[in-house]
Amino acid sequence: MDRLDISDGFDVHDYRHGLKLLKQDRGTMTLENREGFSCPACGDPFERLFVSERRTNTFGDPGRRFCLVRTDDELLLLTH
């Protein structure tokens, strides 16, 4: 299982073969992990990935364990 590499930021196109786009709007996207990629924060496989370029975001209760990862340009929220 490959770990998401965020050393030079996150580029969804590098992982498009295993991530399915569920929702996208201006500045955010939600993806489903269909390939079993592992989380760059904890190393465990994740279920969903929320990517945001916005400075502020509001989240409801994800109902499960989650990790936050910050790149220079984006915030990644990964739910397990």
Q: What would you note in describing this structure?
A:
The chain is mostly beta strands and 80 residues long. The protein has strands at residues 19-25, 28-33, 48-52, 66-70, 75-79. It is built from no helices and five strands. Strands 1-2-3-5-4 form a five-stranded antiparallel β-sheet, with no helix packed on it. The chain is globular and about 30 Å long. The two termini are 15 Å apart. It has one domain.
List the helices and strands and how they pair.
Blueprint: E1 19-25, E2 28-33, E3 48-52, E4 66-70, E5 75-79
Antiparallel strand pairs: 1-2, 2-3, 3-5, 4-5
When the domains are counted, the total is 1
* Annotation field: number of helices: 0
Q: Can you list the strand order of the major beta sheet?
A: 1-2-3-5-4
Rg for CA atoms: 12 Å
Strand content: 35-45%
The main β sheet shows up as:
5 strands, antiparallel
Number of strands: 5
Alpha-carbon distance between the two ends: 15 Å
Oligomer: single chain
Low-confidence stretches: none
The overall pLDDT, averaged over residues, is 93
Structural class, from helix and strand content? mainly beta
User: What is the chain-wise order of helices and strands?
Assistant: EEEEE
**Could you say which overall geometry the principal axes of the C-alpha atoms support?**
globular
